Amino acid sequence: MIRANLLLGLTSLSFVPFVGWRAIVARLKLRSNWLAMQDKMSILTKVMDENLSGIRVVRAFASQKYEMKKYDRASDEAMHLFNKQITTRVSNGTMMTFAFFVAMGFVLWIGGQQIIAGTMTVGELTSFLAFMSILQQPVRQIGMMVNSYARASSTGQRLFDVLDLVPDVRDAQGAQAVAPSESVLRFEHVSFAFPSAASVSVLQDISFEARPGHTIGIVGPPGSGKSTIAQLIPRFYDPGSGRITLNGVDIRSIQLESLRRMVSLVQQNTFLFTASVENNVSYGDPWAEYERIIGATQSAQLHDYIKRLPKGYDSMIGEQGVSLSGGQRQRLSIARSIMLQSGVVIFDDSTASIDTVTEQHIRNALKAASKNCATLIISHRLSSLMHADEILFIREGRIVERGSHEELLAEGSHYRELYELQVRPIEDSFLAASHQES
Ligand SMILES: Nc1ncnc2c1ncn2[C@@H]1O[C@H](COP(=O)(O)OP(=O)(O)OP(=O)(O)O)[C@@H](O)[C@H]1O
Ligand SMILES: [Mg+2]
Q1: pLDDT tens digit sequence for 189-210
Q2: Cα–Cα distance for residue pair 13/133, rounded to 1 Å
Q3: Residues 258, 385: one domain?
Q4: 422 in a domain, yes or no?
Q5: Which of these, 30, 277, 368, 389, has the minimum number of CB atoms within 10 Å of its CB?
Q6: Does residue 223's CB lie within 6 angstroms of at least one atom of ligand 1?
Q7: β-strand 344-348 against 263-266: which pairing, if any?
């Protein structure tokens, strides 16, 4: 076009700088809008997710109306942003097309005058206009591309924010692998605060030693830091000061994968996969023989129940399968940890939903299965850990009392108080009952 007629060529391209400027402005606007919209959409999905997974709570508290309102609000906000987004896109596209037609008007005007002056033929002007209408399509596309680009760059950023995260806890250089074996676990003056609340010290100066075959009991009021102690051992977090050692080696210089094979943690909140009972039990050792799986469920006092299920060990757990009770879930997760045959076993309140008689059976079975393990038992129930070789009473992140059951009872304070509340009334009622009988 420029070669055919310089003046007309430049005139017909005069809209390009305007389109370029609009594209930059629109991209910035659209990008911030997409970012805000992603946020709103994530709130919306979160509300929906909570409502679906917590549907029983919502119904039990008759709060459908309230939840509906919450959902409506989130959805209105998202829709508002969506509308804004469409307005920006459309008005921007219109402006670009408008600029194009203004340029076309100029071409007609200038070309018309040149035809009157006789320096240009009608055919030349017509071909110019035909070329310009071919140019129109790419201009429209620029409008759409600006939107796609803004969307891709804003969502991409959110995605890479997550993908590029480097975990705080990772293998140190030259970390060594260790084979699961008899292990001595030591806490040496460990203090810790969660990264999300760095000013609140959750554990202070915790020291203890768990030797193979020994059991440490940890008891204390809710929120005193018991689970936090358990989470430090497989290195879900690293201590702020002090150190934790396995057989004398700082766990920070052990390869994470081998550390986590060495330590089996039965967590307070059990998590089961939507898979068969067998796969859930053998999660840490997928190639385990059938006999070992049965041995583990027998120790966890769950075998008899599984046997009675219509499909036995192939029964599915989860939405399409059987729903397990709280105590059954806990026993399944105990079975899962027995499979690991690790050197250190930690039970974090893992028998809270299991009755004391079954718990006693599990304990006896475990004694045989894990006689060379260092065992940590965390519990609210004194009867679960009275037999431990050493009992730590934790309060506000500190060990305030320690010793065997008899020593702690004799010294008398927090532990004794708990004993009087939990165990004595039962023993007394037994005594009273046997007196009456006699
Ligand atoms: N991920 C976390 N981020 C920040 N603070 C946390 C986190 N997890 C726990 N806490 C805080 O650390 C403290 C100790 O929690 P922890 O779970 O260890 O208590 P606990 O003794 O196991 O209690 P419970 O007997 O109820 O299980 C609590 O005050 C808790 O609010
Ligand atoms: Mg806990």
Answers
A1: 999 999 998 899 999 999 999 9
A2: 12
A3: yes
A4: yes
A5: 368
A6: yes
A7: parallel
Residue 381: pLDDT above 90? no
Residue 224 Cβ < 6 Å to ligand 1: yes
Query: Same domain for 224 and 273?
Result: yes
Residues 6+ apart with CB under 8 A from 324: 272, 317, 332
Q: Which of 112-116, 168-172, 205-209, 303-307 has the lowest mean pLDDT?
A: 168-172
Residues 240 and 375 grouped into a single domain: yes
Give the atom of ligand 1 at the shortest distance from the alpha carbon of 220: 21
Q: How many helices (H) and strands (E) does the chain have?
A: 16, 10
Handedness of CA 307, 310, 313, 316 (dihedral sign): negative
Determine whether the shortest distance from the Cβ of 231 to ligand 1 is under 6 A. no
Distance (angstroms) between ligand 2 centre and the Cα of 93 equals 57
- Dump pLDDT digits (tens) for 231-250: 999 999 999 999 999 998 99
Is 189 within a domain?
Answer: yes
Ligand 2 centroid to residue 335 C-alpha, Å: 20
Its pTM stands at 0.80
Are 186 and 244 within 8 A, CB to CB? yes
Instruction: Tell me what pLDDT residue 318 has.
Output: 78
User: Do 189 and 158 fall into the same domain?
Assistant: no
Structural domain including 351 reads 185-437
Report the CATH number at residue 210.
3.40.50.300
Here the CATH number for the domain that contains residue 151 is: 1.20.1560.10
Q: Are 374 and 263 in contact (CB under 8 A)?
A: no
Residues 73, 196: one domain? no
Q: Percentage of the chain surpassing pLDDT 70?
A: 97
- Whether 226 lines ligand 1, by a CB cut-off of 6 Å, is yes
